């Protein structure tokens, strides 16, 4: 956990019963609206990855873009958007997966990475791990290496980080929340 993890965790709003009854939605918008806490968030990721050899960040649509862009800029590496199906104009590879509430498909351009590129896969939250696992699969299919998966929030009760670890991926999250 980062030195700023308490400030970051405290800036995340919990919305009960959204998008359906029984779900505790973890809303990062207040964190993004607080310039000082947002800086602490990005700095936490910069400090973690500044001495690692990375070639790119695979940022997952859409909140992963918010994190991935400033981090890629600070690290001097490329940003590769992992998009929802139908959003990329060039030749793509796709991967379908299950979410907590539905199924979805994500895609990457076929020229997103060079073989052997070292990639950080990033999103705002790890719930069941389906989106992250699908993104990791796409990175691997393009012959790049997933160095780690990173998020602001891990929901360990939903076993996503455990699924990612069992699939052989290192996992980093700034903070955890129990209950979903």
From TrEMBL:
InterPro entries per UniProt: Ade_phspho_trans, PRTase-like, PRTase_dom, UPRTase/APRTase
Gene Ontology MF term list: adenine phosphoribosyltransferase activity
Compartments in which it is found: Cytoplasm
Enzyme Commission code: 2.4.2.7
Pathway: Purine metabolism; AMP biosynthesis via salvage pathway; AMP from adenine: step 1/1
Keywords for this protein: Cytoplasm, Glycosyltransferase, Purine salvage, Transferase
Annotated ranges, domain Phosphoribosyltransferase: 46-156
Reactions mediated catalytically: AMP + diphosphate = 5-phospho-alpha-D-ribose 1-diphosphate + adenine
SUPFAM superfamilies found in the cross-reference section: PRTase-like (SSF53271)
Tree of life domain: Bacteria
Protein family: Belongs to the purine/pyrimidine phosphoribosyltransferase family.
Subunit-structure text: Homodimer.
Function: Catalyzes a salvage reaction resulting in the formation of AMP, that is energically less costly than de novo synthesis.
HAMAP family in the cross-refs: Aden_phosphoribosyltr (MF_00004)
Protein name, entry field: Adenine phosphoribosyltransferase
Lineage summary: Bacteria, Pseudomonadati, Pseudomonadota, Gammaproteobacteria, Oceanospirillales
């Amino acid at each position: 956990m980062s030195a700023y993890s308490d400030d970051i965790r405290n800036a995340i709003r919990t919305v009960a019963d959204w998008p359906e009854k029984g779900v505790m939605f973890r809303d990062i918008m207040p964190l993004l609206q607080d310039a000082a806490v947002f800086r602490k968030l990005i700095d936490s990721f910069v400090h973690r990855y500044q001495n690692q050899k990375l070639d790119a960040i695979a940022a997952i649509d859409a909140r992963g873009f918010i994190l991935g862009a400033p981090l890629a800029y600070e690290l001097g590496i490329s940003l590769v958007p992992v998009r929802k199906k139908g959003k990329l104009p060039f030749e793509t590879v796709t991967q379908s997966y299950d979410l907590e509430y539905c199924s979805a498909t994500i895609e990457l351009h076929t020229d997103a990475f060079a073989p052997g590129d070292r990639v950080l896969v990033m999103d705002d939250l790890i719930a069941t791990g389906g989106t992250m696992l699908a993104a990791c699969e796409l990175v691997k299919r393009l012959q790049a290496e997933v160095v780690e998966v990173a998020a602001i929030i891990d929901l360990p009760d939903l076993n996503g980080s455990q699924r990612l670890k069992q699939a052989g991926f290192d996992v980093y999250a700034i903070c955890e929340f129990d209950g979903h």
